[in-house]
Design brief:
The complex is a heterodimer of chains A (about 280) and B (about 300). Helices cover about 80% and strands about 0% of the residues of chain A. Chain A contains twelve helices and no strands. The radius of gyration of chain A is 24 Å and the shape is globular. The two termini of chain A are about 40 Å apart. Chain B is an all-alpha fold. Chain B folds into two domains: about 40 residues; about 230 residues, MetI-like (MetI-like fold, Orthogonal Bundle), CATH 1.10.3720. Helices cover about 75% and strands about 0% of the residues of chain B. Chain B has twelve helices and no strands. Classes of the chains: A mainly alpha (about 280), B mainly alpha (about 300). Chain A: Belongs to the binding-protein-dependent transport system permease family.
Amino acid sequence: MRRRVTLGRALQYVAIALFMVFLAFPLVFLFTTAFKTQAELQSPDPQLLPAQWNLDNFAAAIERANLVQAAGNSLLVAVVTTLIVVVISLPAAYALARFRTRLRKLATGWILLSQVFPFILIIIPLYLMLQPIGLGNSLAGLVVVYVVWSLPFALWMLQGYVASIPVDLEEAGAMDGAPKWRVLISIVLPLLAPGLVATSLFAFIGAWNEFFFALVLIKDEALQTLPQRLALFVGAEGQVQLGQLAAASLLAAIPSLLFFALIQRRLTSGLLSGAVKG
Amino acid sequence: MSAVDVVVAERGLRRRSRFGAERGAWLLFLPAMLPILAFSVWPLLQGIALGFTNATAGRDVVVEFNGVQNYVDLAGYELFWNSFGIGLIWAFSVTLIQFVASLCLALLLNANLWGQGVARTLALIPWAMPPVIIAIMWRLMLHPTYGAVNGGMGALGLPDNINWLGQASTALPAAIVVGVWAGMPQTTITLLAGLQGVNAELHEAAQIDGASTWQRFISVTLPALRPVIVAITTLDFINNFNSFALVYVLTAGAWGTMLPMLFAYNEAFRYGNFGLASAMGNVIVIVITFFLFFYLRAQAKGRES
């Protein structure tokens, strides 16, 4: 019996190791590719590790793909989107969590519905709408689309955090004679801080990573976002310049990877507790 | 504070919440609702309507309703149905493989193995990456001469010169693997959350009754996990059917990987057929709803019995 249990355990370790290789190895491969010279990349017998860790690919990729400009655009769009999403979803999330009105049903319905509809149905009218008001080929137009696109999920996340704050706390504050706004600012807001951070990170990453809407709306090269520029680079030079392509991708992935490293503990625990509550 | 004061305060509170709650809620909701109505609900309604018009790109085109003409055209549009079939194969395979793999991984991550924390973090990696970069990374992995996949196959004595993304027989299966990779974290974490909600006492009771690990998995874990499984596979299926960026960068739809979204995108923004592309969107919604309806109904029935 004992031996069978240990054998089972050993198999479990083998299985989990295989999963980890499958999930993590592609990133390792991208990483090492970014440091290799063109000669190494074209060698008939490619090695996993570069002979020397040189940064030429990074310098070349930044210049050729004009990454700084694209990163600036992506950063601007993502930051503004995040700010707007947080500011307008905060009161709405509070209303959703605290007042059980028809609104709640409507909002829930929309949040679910908005997941089912293919983007193609919404992007053509948006494209036709934004053009005449001067937002067609602009970062402002992209912000509008991203705000609306990330709102349902942000609302849903945030209202969950509001709902987890006991109403008793607010009522206690009200009993002590504090005005409503004071109760909200000094009791609810501090407790909501982790939820606000998590929601903003999701909005930020969503906007930073998004590709489809940018592809349709942004036509000016100077206004392209990072994913757009990278996708173009694949077709233009990426066929031959594998090292530069890897370097550019790695640089563009850093913010997302960093954010996830920062919040992963909270993310896992938050999702785990949230889902259990149903 | 006297008892009377409390009663008065209570009544005041209650009255205010009856009286002003609805209006207060609407006011708080307004800043979020206006942009959603203007830039999400309204365009969506327009999009559905566009599917019944002859709209095309261009400034001075007169848009007219043409009834079901788009759908008659679509019925005979072989390339579209071809792409539709590819979309179904892609969405079903990715969702199914993703589910099985993620369930195994979630069970392993829930088995109190050494290094569990590190493994959970590593399992999140694909989630942290934008689809465009995932696709670029896998283009490198699957590169015919430089790629690690052919390298690994060569090391095992298998053919090592396969052009995975450059021929019809392997492009779709390769893209499916990439799709599975990209979506595994969400599915795994959700299932893991579900697993942690499974009643431990039931497990113990079953163990005392002499049930094997497999029997306990089938008769305790799976039934408890059912709602989570239904929810996540439904979401995954919708997401996968609507997937765009990943395959756009991987193959641009070449070699039998033209997913419906890529097809509709080309129809709209390459050829300018806005009406027809919207009609495709409508057909896609109907088909997705159709599948979900039967899937969810079967699941509901299964739960009753």
